[in-house]
Amino acid sequence: MLIIVVLRLWPLVLGVNFSFTGDGDRNGTWVGLDNYVTLFGDPLFRTALRNVGLLVLLLPVAVAIPGLLATFVYLRVPGHRVYRGVYFFPAVLSPVIVGAIFNLLLAFDGPLNTLLGGVGIGPVDWLGDPDVAIFAVVGVHVWATFGMALVVFLAGFSTLDPSLLDAAKVDGASLPQTVWHVIIPSLSRTIQFVFVTTMIGMLTSMFGLLFVMTSGGPEGSTYLPEYYVWIQQGQMNQPALASAASTALFLIMLVVGLVQIGILRRAGKEE
Amino acid sequence: MSGTRLTKWVVAVPMAALALATIYPLVFTANVAMKTRREYILDRFSLSGSLHWENVVKAWTSVGMSRYFMNSVIVVACSVALLLLLGSMAGFALARLRFRGSSTLFLGILAALFVPFQVIMVPLARIMADTGLIDTYPGLVLAYVAQFLPFTIFLMTSYYSTVPPEIVDAARIDGNTVYGVYWRIMLPMGAPALLSVGVLNALFCWNDVLISLLMMPSAEHRTLMVGVTSLRGQYSDDIPTFASGVLIAAIPVLVVYLFLQRQIADGVTAGSTKG
Hints:
Chain A is an all-alpha fold. Chain A is 76% helix and 0% strand. Chain B contains 13 helices and no strands.
């Protein structure tokens, strides 16, 4: 029994301990809020914050796409089984692989521009234009992860009471009406979950894509806080500043997550 | 009725197009990997006339992908084995053994689940440097275990909670020690969940780039994903070799996905339906 406790507790403490040492920003001397002043004075970090704002705005789209697709799959569109398997696949690929593949596809002289050129749309510098690059990266991220949300939505659908749908059908509800009045209210918990996890995913798992596709460029336009943390820690060797940035990231996530849950709760009550 | 059937076919077309858009990038890459450089520059889209496996061979041998591949296999295998062992032990204990502070402990694990790696990576890097574990296999394995253990424990605990407590009691009465119960009963019973969690953890570790970039600075310790990123710099003018490297890194995932798709989906959704 003692052995089990030791075997069991020690790694837990280790894991939990590792997870919580994150708050100790400043090592050595006390410098007050200097790191935070530096942080918010850095145009790169401000770009990163602006990009976070952009992600929050794009979030409903990133949730609606898998939600809609899951609805269609659930309603047994022809070939739904195949779609489920196919859509989910990119979700298991590494961001590095996805990023590398899209590096080829989105290159200035790459296939996508050739294709667009064929229908008369001029070449777009997907990853080289500061105004376009962040959308390209987010687009690829959505491409890579919508399958994950889709599967979660489908799991939510499986808890749905089929008689509700039948009732809606008997009442002659159209498809949009069914979605709006039956499916969305019954799945509010799932929708909430997908919102929060998608946001967390956008804030914490785009590193691989950024690293491979743009390295934060062009002109620092695709910086996100997590990439900023890595640059300060791994490249510039400024762990204190990196810690300040990661604490800021954590606070952003907390605030965004809580606000989202608040909004969704209230929306749910008004139904 | 025919109205809804029509609607279904109308949405089926864009869905098929989207499915195509989901697979095509990978097919494109595979096709490029089989071309010569000349073929690629002349025409990106056409099917490769003959299969040029020499690109793959080149990526595998001269660039060092074989080395990175082995690094990844070693680290992932050790991490997953350790995660499953510790995760199932802790899950069994938290779900079926009441001990002082067990619920506090579970809350702590839940909290750890929501702390993203970016927030702890700076102190973690320092700890690893201080203990001399940085740039070693055990160091990276430990980092992965620390990162994915909360998730593993969470899923194993919720799985073991569904096991009737009578089974544990009966086994105890039969004279098994707690350890015996774990080893003879709980571990075999947990097999489906262990498979699911194991596959997911293997994918997480295999696909990770940030942790490995942080923990393994030297070139000979690179994992496969970091190797792919370095490939991009070295072979920017030799796209087929680059594509071959990408393909080498993607194929194991593809194989795992084809065989264990259901387990992966189960693992992903297990957390959501409980919440």
